[in-house]
UniProtKB/TrEMBL annotation:
Family listed: Belongs to the bacterial ribosomal protein bL35 family.
GO cellular component: cytosolic large ribosomal subunit
Transport recorded as keyword: no
Top-rank taxon: Bacteria
Keyword presence, DNA-binding: no
UniProt entry keywords in alphabetical sequence: Ribonucleoprotein, Ribosomal protein
Native species: Sphingobacterium humi
Protein name in UniProt: Large ribosomal subunit protein bL35
Gene symbol of the encoding locus: rpmI
Gene Ontology MF: a single term: structural constituent of ribosome
Amino acid sequence: MPKVKTNSSAKKRFKLTGTGKIARKNAYKSHILTKKTTKQKRNLTTTSYVSDADMGNVKRMLVLGK
């Protein structure tokens, strides 16, 4: 049986934490930053976690489980 490949785009975007959660970066921080407030840009810098609804899809892309 062939090996299961990890999704290349997912491995660049997600990181597994020590507690088993999957960390991700926030959207809306790449361009058109002039109209966003300093507070909004600062809050977008922090990492977020993948929601429970999307956890299965992300784990499947990262080949973390069955």
